Amino acid sequence: MTSKFKKLSLTKQILLGLFLGALFGLAIHFLLPQGNFRDKFLVDGLLYIVGNGFLRLIQMIVVPLVFFSIASGAISMGDTGAVGKVGVKTLAFYFLTTAVAIVIALFWGRLINPGSGVDLLSIDASGFEGTEAPNFVETILNIIPSNPIAAMAEGEMLQIIVFAMATGIIVGQLPDKLSLLTRIIEEGNTFVFSLTDKILLLAPYGIFALIARTFAQLGFDSIMPLISYMFAVISGLFLQFGLVYLPLIFLFTRLNVMTFIKKFIPVATFAFSSASSSATIPVSLQATDDMGISRKVSAFSIPLGSTINMDGTAIMLGIAVIFVANLYGIELDMADYINVILTATLTSIGAAGVPGIGAVLLSITFTSVGLPLDGVALIMGIDRLLDMARTVTNVAGDIACTLVIAKTEKALDLDQYNSTVQMASDEF
Ligand code: ASP
Prior knowledge:
Keywords: Cell membrane, Membrane, Transmembrane, Transmembrane helix, Transport
Helix content: over 70%
Membrane topology: Multi-pass membrane protein
Number of strands: 0
Bound molecules: aspartic acid
Subcellular location: Cell membrane
Structural class: mainly alpha
Protein name: Dicarboxylate/amino acid:cation symporter
Pfam family, one: SDF
């Protein structure tokens, strides 16, 4: 059995981990009686240690991975003009796809009108504290680290990106191409690469435990009254994938989109189980490597996307606004919709790609259009499930944009894109 399992490709092992984890979690939830064995030993003991142990291993490499791969990418890019061009293109794509996402959400929400006819009292609302909207000027200023070591310690992604870019550009301009600094960065890069490969071998087990624990703890009672909202969000996420990303890839690259989907599966599985774009960075970079995308583009665009590009979260925000407005019988006008588009696009820039951040953005968006904050509490019961789903779309948006930019920048190895090896770790 073990050897048969090991013979499967890592991608298949991961998928199996996800599937079996979901089944195991459901079995725990519905078949095992509450008590110490189920709750303390299994759910908060064994599954928690294995799942979060794996998640922490992945998180352990995020900061060094982002730093070394961006710095080494910037060294090899040589001139700052190329760095700037990729940067501008990436930002443009990210803003555009997020704006499209929120517009799709508002149209889709208006079309299927989730929440109309639902009785408010049927939903269990646990308290939710609102959050102040971040000051836009501060958000922009915050991109520059006043202390790069603190930025790394706090995992401040945008600040780490800025410092790594600056380091790479300057080291790349040093007269001695084999300087000690260059070698440290290049070897640091190789080291984190190999570490990532090794850690990912544990992914099937980690994902099994993460998913099993989530399903074992899911509040299934909250699902029924919110089913129309859940349906609207999940179908909206699919619309973004099918009507925005795949056509974008096809139009700009003419590549086979099925290959993209196949190579995206391990990333989707990890994003779904971890509900964190930031923790998914190492897996996304593996996938972009397997797609033949040069690290010169991906090392920069993937970490950047994990914080500033949250299309799935934008979809949830748009649908939630319409759902709650319907629940409370509040009429929204054009100015409100424009307000939602602006708030959702701008607030998501500074938000880290970590679990549950969408709920914080939601309270900011609700405040901006005058919807009751109790509305956020209403949908919190099932937010984890939607968080998992929207994280997949968030990451899909990062990789789709990266692929398009790599193709247009001639930073794509077509043979590698079309090769059947799905994960570098499959070769171990
Ligand atoms: N968990 C999401 C992410 O990491 C953010 C959110 O809460 O919507 O991309």
